[in-house]
Amino acid sequence: PRRRSPMERPLERPLERPWERIVVLTGAGISRESGLETFRDGDGLWSRYAIEDVCTPHAFHRDPLLVDRFYNDRRAELWRVRPNDAHLALARLEHAARAGEWDGEILIVTQNIDDLHERAGSRNVVHMHGELLRVRCTACGATPDWQENCLPQTPCPICHRPALRPDVVWFGEIPLHMERIQAALDRCDRFVSIGTSGTVYPAAGFVAQVRDHADTLDINLEAPAVPTAFERSMVGAATRMVPRWVD
Ligand code: BJW
């Protein structure tokens, strides 16, 4: 994105229409260099767990303890890590917009359930696959902060009914905030995908939805599986490529 120096800024800023609307889709690869595992890389989570054991509603129904342990282990990892230069660069871009140094807006649509974008300072973040540090009550719909565990027999702190589960989106469930995401995709000028394998829908289909009206860029350690899916790609580690793109 083109950043303008404050000197270039016109006086009538409020009347000016933002010239660039960016949607950034992030996946597990952006948090890899912070120390969190991806799913499908050789050493990823799916090399140690079977999807059908931990990542479906049926799995939680069958063995909630196993699923709870899977997420508790990942919570323990999350507390050990910090945002990296890629998270920080995206937060800088949002900050530049707030400070009036860049005429644009950025929405981060993340498939990640970690909170590293927020810890880096980003505010416009949508967690389409939920959040590790929240639980969801299947009775009243509340999503309170995670406390001790999220087993079906744990009482909800709001309605007190025993109906808690992790606030995450498993296979076969509908991702969260889809209306807001769809609206942002429909009006974006630029779509940037960072550190996602593009194998899980609906996120994998976003690039096709925006191609007729937005520039598309893929940033990944690997070249895109379908080379024609994106107009441009930057192949390399997110901590190196994202700051290069932002700054
Ligand atoms: C680096 C790097 C570095 C590494 N720097 N890069 C057939 C066709 C179409 C759809 C379906 C189908 N059959 C079934 C479906 C639906 C299904 C689906 O997509 N299945 C596919 C497997 C085919 N999808 C669903 O069920 C979804 N729901 C749905 O579709 O509902 C219908 C509906 C939608 C919309 C409106 C109305 C109705 C739900 C999907 C839920 C996914 N849940 C998970 C778990 C979340 C909780 C948790 O974290 O435990 O989400 S699965 C897992 O995969 C997680 C991730 O968010 C998601 C994507 O993974 P991600 O982030 O891409 O990670 P990896 O590991 O795959 O890739 C890492 C990448 O990083 C790699 O490319 C590396 O190269 C790169 N990398 N280091 C840069 N340093």
Give a quick summary of the entry.
The protein has 247 residues and is an alpha/beta fold.
User: How many separate domains make up the residues?
Assistant: 2
Category by helix and strand content: alpha/beta
Q: Would you list the SSEs in sequence order as H and E?
A: EHHHHHEHEEEHEHEEH
Major sheet characteristics: 6 strands, parallel
Q: State the helicity in percent bands.
A: 25-40%
Overall 3D shape: globular
* Helical stretch tally: 9
Indicate the topology.
Elements: E1 20-26, H1 29-32, H2 51-54, H3 57-62, H4 64-80, H5 85-98, E2 104-110, H6 116-120, E3 125-127, E4 130-137, E5 164-168, H7 178-187, E6 190-194, H8 206-210, E7 215-220, E8 232-235, H9 238-246
Parallel strand pairs: 1-2, 1-6, 2-3, 6-7, 7-8
Antiparallel strand pairs: 4-5
Bound molecules: ligand BJW.
GO molecular function: histone deacetylase activity, NAD-dependent; NAD+ binding; protein-malonyllysine demalonylase activity; protein-succinyllysine desuccinylase activity; zinc ion binding
Active site: 129
Subcellular location: Cytoplasm
Q: What report would you give on this structure?
A:
The protein has 247 residues and is of the alpha/beta class. It folds into 2 domains: 1-36 and 83-129 and 174-247, Rossmann fold (3-Layer(aba) Sandwich), CATH 3.40.50; 44-80 and 134-168, SIR2/SIRT2 'Small Domain'. It contains 9 helices and 8 strands. It has helices spanning 29-32, 51-54, 57-62, 64-80, 85-98, 116-120, 178-187, 206-210, 238-246, and strands spanning 20-26, 104-110, 125-127, 130-137, 164-168, 190-194, 215-220, 232-235. The strands form 2 sheets. Strands 3-2-1-6-7-8 form a 6-stranded parallel β-sheet, with helices on both faces. A two-stranded antiparallel sheet has the order 4-5. The longest helix has 17 residues, at 64-80. The N and C termini lie close together (8 Å). The model is unreliable at 9-13 (pLDDT under 50). Residues 27-29, 32-33, 38-41, 44, 55, 111, 113, 129, 168-175, 178, 195-197, 199-202, 220-222, 237-238 line the site of ligand BJW.
